[in-house]
Amino acid sequence: MSTLPVGLMIESLVAVLLLVTIAYCVVLNKRLKRLRADEEALRATISELITASEIAERAILGLKATAGEADRTLGQRLVDAERLSQELAAQIGTGNTVLERITQIAEAASSRPAPEAPVARVQPEMAEPARPATMRASDIRSAAMEATARLEHFRRRAAEQAA
Question: Disulfide engineering: 155 pairs with which of 2, 50, 85, 88, CB 3.0-4.6 Å?
Answer without folding.
Answer: 88
